């Protein structure tokens, strides 16, 4: 996977050496910027979505730990690059992923990048798994992906789901609607263990929200918000089985 990074180092020569090593031996690392002090580093960190920050300890007007304190919520991996080994314990306490000593060993640099790559790959896989709309480990809830993460919805708040090509519209009892890039069949399977019935090729309803059934070849159901949904003849018996 590609890793976005910055180099925080006050010595230009050291920055150039690390940048050249990364380009030659760690092609999956993209260096998005360089900083010579804490303030420059803060700007880069706040303006980029980073995977790695290569961080020298001693800099003008503050050190690496001052920088990490100012960042606060750290969502990147930190690789310390320093000529001083007495910062190792502080780096460990700052949850550093790796501690590189100057002069930089190419083998150690490759190990550091490989280690971070493994971490980020596992995190990405877990995130992709969690961000899939599905029933979560918390009873009675389902996760709905969003651009900046995911939303957790109580299954009991769902009135019905409606197919919209390869999307699904989820209607809630709060008069809100969610549009999710998954098919209705996906939600039929995800909500399989909850009280949801596929009553039509285009509708999946929360049986607990059904307040009335009107007879017919398939008939139709009326939900608690007054919404009427047609029932396919082939789905009729499945629906009525909930009310036996």
Question: How is this structure best described in words?
Answer:
There is one protein chain. With 244 residues, the chain is of the alpha+beta class. Strand 12 (167-172) and strand 13 (177-180) form a beta hairpin. It is 31% helix and 34% strand. The termini are far apart. The protein has 2 domains: 3-130, Response regulator (Rossmann fold, 3-Layer(aba) Sandwich), CATH 3.40.50.2300; 134-243, OB fold (Dihydrolipoamide Acetyltransferase, E2P), CATH 2.40.50.1020. It has a 5-stranded parallel sheet. One of its GO terms (molecular function) is DNA binding.
Descriptive key words:
five-stranded parallel sheet, elongated, Rossmann fold, alpha+beta, 7 helices, 244 residues, OB fold (Dihydrolipoamide Acetyltransferase, E2P)
Strand-helix topology:
Elements: E1 3-8, H1 12-25, E2 29-35, H2 38-47, E3 52-55, E4 58-59, E5 62-63, H3 64-71, E6 77-82, H4 88-93, E7 98-101, H5 106-131, E8 134-135, E9 141-146, E10 149-154, E11 158-164, E12 167-172, E13 177-180, H6 184-190, E14 196-200, E15 203-206, E16 210-214, E17 220-223, E18 228-230, H7 236-240
Parallel strand pairs: 1-2, 1-3, 3-6, 6-7
Antiparallel strand pairs: 4-5, 8-9, 9-10, 11-12, 11-15, 12-13, 14-15, 16-17, 17-18
